[in-house]
Amino acid sequence: MSKQVSVWTDNRFWARSAAWVTGFSSILLIWLTFDTSSQIAMGTESDLQNKVTKRVPAPTVINYKITYEMSDKRGHEVPVIGEKEKFFGRDDYSEQEAADLLHLGKLGSQAKNCMNCHTILGNGAYYAPDLTKAWLDPAWGPEGSMMALTGKQTKEEAMAEFLMNPSKYPTHERMMPDLGITAEEAKGLVAFLKHMSSIDTNGFPRNFGRMQGAIHGK
Ligand code: HEC
């Protein structure tokens, strides 16, 4: 007489379930990996020229005006890349020049450890303002105070001057220390910040536009 065995105590049932779940998860993960890679792959200059929206635009995005606009469909602000705009007097940086500048900025941000105090794309500290969208902070635009404070005519020059001499321009209770940043490094860092502001981060940092009044990137 065979004993009635419940399916829940049957080893074969659990072995099969485990195999199916593992198999299904592996396929899902492989698919997600490819999907993510294509989403975060950097765009090209021709994407910019043809107005193809990429989450991470080409480094040559520094040749364009970047604004931040509310997307009703997505329920948060998204970066919008507009017309050509001069960056340190030029709007014709080649792909190589723009990539080199960005590289210099990235290395500078690591060498000077900006993340020790700031947050960059979700990584870092909260001692100082989030830098992910710092380029769009209206404080640096024509309606902000930083151009006048630094005596510069453009946003990028004002930012570079601040980065070279932050202790000369304290605006909050906390002051950014002088980090010995050179003019060349400052240019790279500002390019790095400008490019980062053009990345579609699904509205992160949350409510940045509303907090800072940065919508339409004044
Ligand atoms: C020791 C901490 C510290 C480090 C390291 C640091 N910062 Fe700062 N930073 C601050 C503080 C504090 C402020 C706010 C100062 C103020 O507004 O007066 C600030 C402000 C800024 C601002 C203005 C932010 C805005 O939204 O307007 C920028 C841009 C900036 N930092 C860039 C950088 C970069 C780039 C680096 C790395 C090269 C860096 N900081 C490293 C402390 C730091």
Question: Brief overview, please?
Answer:
With 218 residues, the protein is mainly α.
Keywords:
Cytochrome Bc1 Complex, Chain D, domain 2, mainly alpha, 4 strands, two-stranded antiparallel ribbon, 7 helices, two-stranded antiparallel sheet, binds heme C, elongated, 218 residues
Following the backbone from N to C, one meets helices and strands in this order, namely HHEEHEEHHHH
Question: Would you give the CATH topology of the largest domain?
Answer: Cytochrome Bc1 Complex, Chain D, domain 2
**What's the architecture of the largest domain, going by CATH?**
Orthogonal Bundle
Number of helices: 7
Bound molecules: heme C
Query: Uncertain spans, ≥5 residues at pLDDT below 50?
Result: none
Q: Specify the CATH class of the largest domain.
A: Mainly Alpha
Helix content: 25-40%
**In terms of structural class, how would the helical and strand content be classed?**
mainly alpha
Overall pLDDT level: 92
Structure report:
By secondary structure, the protein is mostly helical. It is 40% helix and 10% strand. The protein folds into two domains: 7-39; 45-212, Orthogonal Bundle (Cytochrome Bc1 Complex, Chain D, domain 2). It contains seven helices and four strands. The strands form two sheets. Strands 1-2 form a two-stranded antiparallel sheet. Helix 3 (95-111) packs across helix 6 and helix 5 (155-164) packs across helix 6. The protein is elongated. It starts with 10 loop residues before the first helix and ends in a 6-residue tail after the last helix. The relative contact order is 0.15. Bound molecules: heme C. Heme C (HEC) binds next to helix 3 and helix 5.
